[in-house]
Amino acid sequence: MSEHINNREYRQKLLKELIMELHDGKDFDEVKAKFEENFKDVSAKEITEMETQLVVDGMPVEEIQRLCDVHASVFKGTIEEIHAIRRDEDTPGHPIHTFREENKLIQKLIDEQIRPHVDAMEENDKVTVDLAADFKDLWEIDKHYGRKENLLFPYMEKYGITAPPQVMWGVDDENRDLIKEVRELLKNYQYARPKEEVVEKANAAINGVEEMIFKEENILFPMVLDTLNDNEWKKILEESDEYGYFFFEPKVEWVPKAVPEESMEPEVQGVEGYVKFDAGFMSQEELNAMLNTLPLDMTFVDKDGRVKYFTQGKERIFARPKTIIGREVSNCHPPASVHIVEEIVEELKSGKKDHEDFWINMGEKFVHIRYFAVRNEQGEFLGVVEVSQDIKPLRDLTGEKRLVE
């Protein structure tokens, strides 16, 4: 055992040295040769585990990212021999089958349209319209990346594989930025943008996309196939439609094998005092505090017309004394307007409407009031939720403020 530990420690030390050599600008091929000599007998999974430990030890993800190209290049052509082939991934409907079909379409778009148009752009600029259409199509890769980042990566992190997701997400964003830059250059091309700049950025974008295809096919997919169980693949499959696909409609033929229930959502199993939702779980304290933090008022009236709950936010719009809890909602409104409230509730309850909206001026506030019918999965009426919000600050917004500028 100590031999394995020492060997592993030595390899990790060597891996760190290679990363620092790349950082110091050493020739890529020299580092690649040294990596191949020392790591040709280890799997991609072991490499990524060591990279993960280096991140835990404090090495920036950006430094690890430098080595990603090296081991991707070394493993090219041999990675399939390292990892056993699982037939599930070849079945239409399996998430990996879908990812791979998308990669084929992305590569086809690059080979048959984008690269010929970029080459033509070097000679003249008569293909700018075609190239703009190409990169509009290529932007659909955002859906492919989104499924990977939001559905695959959380399960990798659950198993302690943290560095590869961080590195890949960073590279995905670089590719997104390059595609957006090309689209912007083409959009404003008539305003004296040099074609050389378009060609340079376009080549950088498609090279980045192709490199990511290689990394997904030869490192990411084998690694997650070795790690995730069928229940987890099933959940990824169920959530995939929300993110969309790269010009691909998956046929759901794959049926996951049954995995014992205890291996599903271990983080939820055995947790007492928590409220479980369709997506997640929270303690009563967390739930109450979260609802009171929302910048709006919510009041719930049950199917029998009795007030059952209202939030206690700091900036209330309408007064709500706790004495109304349990009262019939018709008794909580002035006689002059109670018939309107009853009419709204009846229309929501009968299914004639799913919501009713009002908006009023209240001093400096512009208040948006919405009534929603609350129904269970079977469509049965459970009550009405009233949501009131001062939307004047929202109406005054202009321009954009993004998380990353």
From TrEMBL:
Q: Where is the Hemerythrin-like domain?
A: 94-224
Residues covered by the DUF438 domain: 15-81
GO CC terms in record: plasma membrane
PANTHER family in the cross-refs:
BLL2471 PROTEIN-RELATED (PTHR39966), DUF438 DOMAIN-CONTAINING PROTEIN (PTHR39966:SF3)
Protein name, as recorded: DUF438 domain-containing protein
Whose protein is this, by species?
Alkalibacter rhizosphaerae
